[in-house]
Amino acid sequence: MSSIIEYLESEFATFDEKPFGAVDAAVLSQAAMLNGTGIVPSFPSAPSGLLDRLSAFLAPQLPSARFVDFARAERFDGMFTGLVPHDIKRCLFALIASPRFRDLAICGFQRVVDEAACTQFMATTYVWRDAFAFVAFGGTDISLAGWRENLDMAYCPETGAQRLARTYLEQAASHLPQRLLVGGHSKGGNLALYAALTCRDTVRGRIDHLWALDAPGFKEGCFTEEDYARLGDRASRIVPEESTIGMLLECPLEPMVVRSTASGVEQHSAFTWEIEGGAFVSAGRLSDSSRALRDVTAEWLSGMDDARRRRVVEAVSEAVVASGATDVLDVLAPGQDVIGNMIEVSQRLDADTRDTLARALGDLANIAMRRLGEDVVQSLPWLRRQ
């Protein structure tokens, strides 16, 4: 068995010799966590006049970079984003050396972090000659804005990053004549799917395939079966057997379940997913714990309307700010009792906020107790203080 890194070090076939597949989508979804500011050109503005449009048509080549252009130590601070920056860094150097990936043209970099609007977005497009363009949406970085936006998905019909994702996909399509491939991991997978479901019909029709990798779904009622039917069999959802993030919110796409060398929430990292013969190794089915998480969170959210969900999200955000956290690593560091710490911090908040948190966490614990049993719940450090 191998991992993404070993795949990069051993797969020497070019995309002309071996078609693009799910593992390649996972690789580039991780590459999308590279901050390309100052390295990867953004898409040019749409040509406005007749002469500008004619010039763009006659000379369609977009300004681009290569993976080797990222190899600048003076830019490393801030280049490797997300919760596994060391793996992203290893991935970069494997990409630079890989005969399969090193000659990809990289273009269309866009990054937005707006703390006031609770919006965090990053996307990059990878082009192989005239064969395909892979539009990759980055996942969540460590900014508090990004993680607040993740929580907002529970009640918002459209977040800032989702709106940006649709615009980005349509912009990419306007510049690129190649067949379109789309994907992302975690929040990036959510953005990829949202963009494909909400973009113009002409753009959706050009999508050859889409990969949503251990991505959260959407609030109930956001999309219908008919919406997903427009994608047909061109969308793949992939999750590890002990999926956590990929079990949150609603997504009717039947997942391919893959094996991981890690356990629990650490399986969320695509760097732990097992590969054999250039393909992910099937695990057959989700674990009992993963399905239990899906059922518990679904029931918990179903007991709240959008207004109450928003109050809970705001209460959680206030507790995080009151804790003094500057980024999500302060909250989710290994060994942290996240819920216990939140309850402790909530004592510093006003009575309404404190009561909102207490009621929400109490409801979650009661549902888990009923569905999983007291022994199981008491073994979970994030619930046992309730």
Written description of the protein model:
The protein is of the alpha/beta class and 386 residues long. The protein folds into two domains: 4-287, 3-Layer(aba) Sandwich (Rossmann fold), CATH 3.40.50; 303-378, no CATH class. The protein has 15 helices and nine strands. Helix 1 runs parallel beside helix 4 (85-97), helix 6 (160-175) crosses helix 7 and helix 11 (306-322) crosses helix 14 (351-372). The longest helix has 22 residues, at 351-372. The chain is globular and about 60 Å long. Mean pLDDT is 91; it is low at 381-386.
Short description:
This protein has 386 residues and is of the alpha/beta class. The protein has helices at 4-10, 22-31, 50-58, 85-97, 144-152, 160-175, 187-198, 201-204, 225-229, 288-302, 306-322, 329-332, 338-346, 351-372, 374-378; strands at residues 105-114, 119-128, 132-137, 179-185, 207-213, 235-240, 256-258, 275-276, 279-280.
Secondary-structure map with pairings?
Layout: H1 4-10, H2 22-31, H3 50-58, H4 85-97, E1 105-114, E2 119-128, E3 132-137, H5 144-152, H6 160-175, E4 179-185, H7 187-198, H8 201-204, E5 207-213, H9 225-229, E6 235-240, E7 256-258, E8 275-276, E9 279-280, H10 288-302, H11 306-322, H12 329-332, H13 338-346, H14 351-372, H15 374-378
Parallel strand pairs: 3-4, 4-5, 5-6, 6-7
Antiparallel strand pairs: 1-2, 2-3, 8-9
Helix pairs in contact: 1-4, 6-7, 10-14, 11-13, 11-14
